[in-house]
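Side project, low priority. Logging it here so it doesn't get lost.
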Amino acid sequence: NTPLGASPTNVAIHNLHIIGFARASINIQGDSTNWHIHDNDFYAIGGMYNVTSKWYHGSGIQMTHNANNIEINNNTLVQTFDSPITPQHFGGSSNGHMHDLHFHDNYIDRWALGAVEMADFGTNNRFSRVTIEDNTAINGGLGFSSIGDTPQGVTDGFQVRGGNSSVFSDLVIRRNKVNTAHANVVIGGSNFTNAILVEDNTLWGADYGIRNKRIDSAYLYATGNRLCDNATQINDRAAGSQYIDNTLVAGACAVD
């Protein structure tokens, strides 16, 4: 856990086995930059009770405030109470900017909120240049924390949640394999400056394969995706979204 007033740079964390932490296994705060978190195992993270919110909570790898140039790859995260990987602007924050965040080649199994949750609960905060690539995230909603344990009440794969005047740009979701309870990819933020690229993913077994809840400024360019056995394969309210060369399969699809 880095203190708010600190800004550690050039940090590498690798080859750790962390089991049974009640809050977060790694918490990156302040103006931290150039972190590389790779080849670690995290198991049974989260479940701490918050007396203020009256909810249990706890995520795996968490970033806040102005964290930037963060690479998270080749980690195994199993049984996370909230979200295994989450960049967040907390409530009460403003004018923060998290950028150049790269999450790839991670194995995620069983969580209750979002496998990757990108959220702004503050005001006038920004996210830019975020890539989520080549991850496997399965069994969302089936862990030791049930879906009803979180304030959100649903379990998503990759989710974007916006606050007041949030700004999102250059978000790429590519070549992932995702199976969760509610929505495998869900967009619910605000003020997107360009299209969100959703490309070559395999998304299966959820209420929604791809769900875009925004009606304006959040356009998806979705191409080459396989959507299998989702109750609703695509649900998109934005008129400007484009879906090109996606494969929709009513039943199960083979996943390597």
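Brief comment: The chain has a mean pLDDT of 89.
Revisit when time allows.
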